[in-house]
TrEMBL record:
It comes from Loxia leucoptera. PROSITE patterns: PROTEIN_KINASE_ATP, PROTEIN_KINASE_DOM, PROTEIN_KINASE_ST. Its main location: nucleus. This is non-specific serine/threonine protein kinase. Residues 391-425 form a coiled coil. It is an enzyme of class 2 (transferase). ATP binds at residue 469. It holds the Pfam family Pkinase.
Length: 750
């Protein structure tokens, strides 16, 4: 480094010294001195006092004269002007050109007139960091007269460290000079200024000092490199994992597409199989219907003036039974005639003489040639017994024919229903198995109402059978009427879709087909409704009827516990579905088209709510308050459903309605049949328990204030489980009555 320093121009070297030594010095009047003054001296004397007379005399001349070119060699130099190095001598050095970094730090040589009275300079050991990271402790002699060379060396080393730090990742090599100035004999202001400069430079050097060794730096560098390698490895792992995940996503996407395609094929095949099965069932139904047309009967069109009407014609099965009944009737008449003749030939009793008139008749008969044999008493009784047996046999045969006729009538009802269904299905626009809403495959028609058709369908999404109710509006209706009907259907949908109870048919979906038709998707039940069952069997046992009523009351209790409560208002056997088609199974309530919502705005707990749809519903099952006509609409509550429960229970037990049994709805309305139904009457047969009759009376109380509500109905003693035990463990007379009623019900149902 000294070789590079000596190669500089002396003036530039002095300027460099002044630049580096003036870094930490405060600005003041001393800065106006000559540039060769050393502001970084450790001693108490100024640079002017340390300068030689030669330097002072030739100061201005040396600044204006260009420096001579010189060469520096190891321990040898050419004659040249005075340099700063001439005023320093290096202890242990090989010459003035020896680098201070390779020998002991130099000690400044003072002029004779400025010799100090200090003791020997202190020896301070400072760590010196090399390139290889080793810290060698070198002895540095500190002298108060050490001027600017160390500052130059430190500045030069600092530049090299900064360059190395930029190239080598922040490695820093620093010389720290811990110097102590000797006391000055003059005590001038320059000495104080020089000491201040040295303190500031020392503080600046301490701030740039580092405690890191090369081992620590290497360890840090290795740790950084290892962390970097780990991060790069982690990044590579994540990239590979990302690629694997993308590959898996692609594979799963392909599998998904494959499964979707397979699912579509399965759905297509399911549709094909369902349609084939439905067509086969339709063909079988039509074949059976054609056979039953001959056996059970059919409709024929008969013209009456300008109109045509359909008339029913019985089949050969009914004709044969009618012929058998006619034969039995003729045989009975013949037997009765013979019995009358036998009575005329009855012989007199023992010990009695025949009257004279009898003798005269016998004579007349003899004269006419028609002699009637006289029967003995034994012959008479024998003939009389034969006639009685024949009459008994005819009566038994007639009963069998009557039972067969009733059975055929039930079958004929099914046949007539099937004929109407087939006729409606053939005239329907949905007969060719369309798929509605890309989901519901229509299979066959279940029934048809006024403005709706109910189809059995298959849900291709949920893979289940459903009932699709298609509402079709009359195209000739006004828009206002269509809007009203659609509003009514939407109201039913909003009510029904919120209900979730095992005794209530579930509503799955609702969608529109076009401007004049829309659909509701309901839960499908295999069996028929209670109305069809009663038409087939007339009545049922009390246990079966009680089971059905318990399930209905359970559903009504749920409807009154939800918020807001709901009045069904249209409870009847046609809206009670038998799940398996028998009276001993589960039931489900359907058809909420006339339901009333008892919200806070329209319902009053005391008076109830206004009946806004008076005239709607089925009149046989509505209470008297629904028929009251006045200035204001009548008030109703959930007691309307309680009345309906009583009517249904009565009909299940006795096979007939309690009020207006053989009347039409128009007759009921005109004759005020329900308004006159102040008390219910029970027929003597079939025999019903008093508890059941009392339950019916509580349900059919004329005044709604006297009638129980749904909550009280659910807690009625007759419907509680312990009542069955009390009924079964009642008195022998009661048990005999119950068994008699059960046997009579079974015989009547058979």
């Amino acid at each position: 480094m000294m070789e590079e320093l000596h190669s500089l121009d002396p003036r530039r070297q002095e300027l460099l010294e002044a630049r580096f030594t003036g870094v930490g010095v405060a600005k003041g009047p001393l800065n106006s001195e000559s540039s060769n003054q050393s502001l970084c001296s450790v001693g108490s004397l100024s640079d002017k006092e340390l300068e030689t007379p030669e330097k002072k005399q030739n100061d201005q001349r040396n600044r204006k004269r260009k420096a001579e070119t010189y060469e520096t060699s190891q321990g040898k130099g050419t004659p040249r002007g005075h340099k700063i190095s001439d005023y320093f001598e290096f202890a242990g050095g090989s010459g003035p050109g020896t680098s201070p970094g390779r020998s002991v730090p130099p000690v400044a040589r003072s002029s004779p007139q400025h010799s100090l009275s200090n003791p020997l300079p202190r020896r301070v050991e400072q760590p010196l960091y090399g390139v290889d990271g080793s810290a060698a402790k070198e002895t540095q002699e500190e002298h108060s007269a050490l001027p600017t060379l160390m500052s130059v060396m430190l500045a030069k080393q600092r530049l090299e460290n900064e360059q190395l730090a930029q190239r080598g990742g922040g490695l820093c090599f620093t010389f720290v000079s811990a110097q102590q100035g000797s006391p000055s004999s003059t005590g001038s202001g320059n000495t104080e200024h020089s000491c201040t400069s040295q303190k500031q430079i020392s503080i600046q050097h301490k701030q740039s000092q580092s405690d890191l060794t090369m081992e620590k730096l290497s360890a840090l560098e290795n740790s950084k490199n290892s962390d970097l390698e780990k991060k790069e490895g982690r990044i590579d792992d994540l990239l590979r994992a990302n690629c694997d995940l993308r590959r898996q996503i692609d594979e799963q996407q392909k599998m998904l597409e494959k499964y979707k395609e397979r699912l579509n094929r399965c759905v297509t095949m399911s549709k094909k199989l369902l349609i084939e099965k439905s067509k086969q069932e339709k063909m079988a139904c039509r074949d059976k219907s054609m056979q039953d047309r001959l056996r059970l009967g059919h409709f024929t069109t008969v013209r009456h003036g300008a109109s045509f009407t359909e008339q029913w014609t019985d089949g050969y099965a009914f004709q044969n039974l009618i012929k058998q009944q006619e034969r039995i009737n003729s045989q009975r008449e013949e037997i009765e005639r013979q019995r009358k003749m036998l009575a005329k030939r009855k012989p007199p009793a023992m010990g009695q003489t025949p009257p004279a008139s009898t003798e005269q008749k016998q004579r007349k008969s003899k004269t006419n040639g028609a002699e009637n044999e006289t029967l003995t008493l034994a012959e008479y009784h024998e003939q009389e017994e034969i006639f009685k047996l024949r009459l008994g046999h005819l009566k038994k045969e007639e009963a069998e024919i009557q039972a067969e006729l009733e059975r055929l009538e039930r079958v004929r009802n099914l046949h007539i229903r099937e004929l109407k269904r087939i006729h409606n299905e053939d005239n329907s626009q949905f007969k060719d198995h369309p798929t509605l809403n890309d989901r519901y495959l229509l299979l066959h028609l279940l029934g048809r109402g006024g403005f709706s058709e109910v189809y059995k369908a298959f849900d291709l999404t949920e893979q289940r059978y459903v009932a699709v109710k298609i509402h079709q509006l009359n195209k000739n209706w006004r828009d206002e009427k269509k809007e009203n009907y659609h509003k009514h259907a939407c109201r039913e949908y909003r009510i029904h879709k919120e209900l979730d109870h095992p005794r209530i048919v579930k509503l799955y979906d609702y969608f529109s087909l076009d401007t004049d038709s829309f659909c509701t998707v309901l839960e499908y039940c295999e069996g028929n409704d209670l109305d069809f069952y009663l038409k087939q069997h007339k009545l049922m046992s009390e246990k079966e009827a009680r089971s059905i009523i318990m399930q209905i009351v359970n559903a009504l209790k749920y409807l009154n516990e939800i918020k807001p409560p709901i009045i069904h208002y249209d409870l009847k056997p046609g809206n009670i579905l038998l799940v398996n088609g028998t009276a001993c199974g589960e039931i489900k309530i359907t058809d909420f088209g006339l339901s009333k919502i008892m919200d806070d705005d329209s319902y009053n707990s005391v008076d109830g709510m206004e009946l806004t749809s008076q005239g709607a519903g089925t009149y046989w099952y509505l209470p008297p308050e629904c028929f009251v006509v006045g200035k204001e609409p009548p008030k109703i509550s959930n007691k309307v459903d309680v009345w309906s429960v009583g009517v249904i229970f009565y009909q299940c037990l006795y096979g007939r309605k309690p009020f207006g049994h053989n009347q039409s709805q128009q007759d009921i309305l005109q004759e005020n049949t329900i308004l006159k139904a102040t008390e219910v009457q029970f027929p003597p047969k079939p025999v019903v328990t008093p508890e059941a009759k009392a339950f019916i009376r509580r349900c059919l109380a004329y005044r709604k204030e006297d009638r129980i509500d749904v909550q009280q109905l659910a807690c009625d003693p007759y419907l509680l489980p312990h009542i069955r035990k009390s009924v079964s463990t009642s008195s022998p007379a009661g048990a005999a009555i119950a068994s008699t009623s059960g046997s009579s019900n079974n015989s009547s149902s058979n």
